[in-house]
């Protein structure tokens, strides 16, 4: 990864190499914490804008509410920290990573008065699944690992510990030569990918799994809003992997992955094997909006 100069840590700008934690940091051992992934884009007019910052900060607080963690900063302070790291690192475009974690001092699962800490880092980060993937689509495989059961982990929270499940799935399919893992829920229905939500277009209708065993993705919500602008109906409903195989288009959404088409699943070509017109039009709209080219969506941008 490309380093920047400074990281916001517990309220202070700290040199990148000094932003360290003790090996007995509680979250490192048990995974109890919450984080966000946010992107800032360089707009066509040269300014820099963070995409849906308020929604990401809201989700960070919701994650902590779900997990029973009290953040020692308010939403305005967290939002300001996200803007400050970009400014101090002179970064116009990149990824922002706020993380709430439990520091060191006590061990054991349940500790009294956990020392809650907050860091916000940022760094330049290009396309997550590669330029070619974004343009021509990626190859995905259904993982043998089941997505979290709704009563095992509460998937509306974005907790570090939950990502062991994602890493297992991603590692399994990447080792087998694919780019991304599609995960089924505990009932066997399609849920989401290791770090992205999923959409399919079949017989002209757009479908995405409901918000049961998945993270409520902000890019997912963005796509649903764009689809409604274009008078396309998106239904949130369960579907099976064979329905995916017979789809005309499948694409995945996430802050890191943006809008990435899937061209093949389990060695079956999706549609023509090329990104379809719905995927392409939603992807195009996404990049126009994040780059500030659509004034109707400036309310989603925090200009820095
Ligand atoms: N699902 C999972 C499991 C994720 O980690 C992410 C990335 N945050 C998403 C979906 C997509 O969410 P968003 O669009 O808010 O980045």
Description:
With 304 residues, the protein is α+β, with helices and mostly antiparallel strands. It is 28% helix and 27% strand. The protein is built from 8 helices and 17 strands. Strands 8, 9, 10, 11, 12, 13, 14, 15 and 16 form a 9-stranded mixed sheet that branches. Strands 1, 2, 3, 4, 5, 6, 7 and 17 form an 8-stranded antiparallel sheet that branches. Helix 6 links the parallel strand 12 (205-208) and strand 13. Helix 2 (53-67) crosses helix 3. The longest helix has 15 residues, at 53-67. The mean pLDDT is 97. Residues 37, 192, 195-197, 215, 217-220, 253-255 line the site of 4'-deoxy-4'-aminopyridoxal-5'-phosphate.
* Outline type: globular
Number of helices: 8
Question: What profile does the largest beta sheet have?
Answer: 9 strands, mixed
Secondary-structure element series: EEHEEEHHEEHEHEEEEHEHEEEHE
Q: In percent, how much strand structure appears in the residues?
A: 25-35%
Mean pLDDT: 97
Distance between the termini: 23 Å
Helix content estimate: 25-40%
* Contiguous uncertain segments of 5+ residues: none
Bound molecules: 4'-deoxy-4'-aminopyridoxal-5'-phosphate
Class based on secondary structure composition and strand pairing: alpha+beta
Rg computed from alpha carbons, rounded to a whole number of angstroms? 19 Å
What is the number of strand segments? 17
């Amino acid at each position: 990864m490309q380093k920047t100069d400074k990281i916001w840590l517990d309220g202070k700008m700290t040199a990148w190499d000094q932003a360290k934690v003790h090996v007995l940091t509680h979250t490192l051992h048990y995974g109890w914490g919450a984080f966000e992934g946010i992107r800032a884009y360089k707009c066509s007019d040269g300014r820099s804008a963070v995409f849906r910052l308020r929604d990401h900060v809201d989700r960070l607080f919701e994650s902590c509410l779900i997990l029973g963690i009290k953040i020692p900063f308010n939403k305005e302070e967290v939002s300001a920290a996200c803007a400050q790291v970009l400014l101090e690192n002179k970064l116009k475009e990149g990824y922002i990573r706020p993380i709430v974690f439990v520091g060191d001092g006590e061990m054991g699962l349940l500790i009294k008065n956990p020392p809650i800490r907050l860091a916000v880092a940022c760094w330049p980060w290009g396309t997550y699944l590669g330029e070619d993937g974004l343009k021509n689509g990626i190859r995905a495989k259904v993982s043998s690992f089941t997505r979290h059961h709704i009563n095992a982990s509460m998937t509306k929270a974005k907790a570090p510990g939950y990502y062991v499940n994602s890493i297992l799935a991603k590692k399994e399919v990447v080792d087998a030569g694919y780019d991304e893992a599609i995960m089924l829920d505990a009932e066997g229905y399609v849920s989401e990918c290791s770090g992205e939500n999923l959409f399919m277009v079949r017989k002209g209708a757009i479908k995405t799994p409901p918000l049961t065993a998945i993270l409520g993705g902000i890019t997912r919500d963005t796509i649903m809003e764009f689809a409604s602008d274009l008078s396309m109906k998106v239904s949130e409903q369960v579907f099976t992997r064979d329905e995916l195989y017979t789809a005309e288009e499948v694409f995945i959404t996430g802050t890191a992955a943006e809008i990435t088409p899937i061209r093949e699943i389990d060695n079956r070509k999706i549609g023509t094997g090329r990104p379809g017109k719905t995927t392409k039009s939603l992807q195009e709209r996404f990049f126009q909006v994040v780059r500030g080219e659509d004034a109707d969506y400036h309310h989603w941008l925090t200009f820095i």
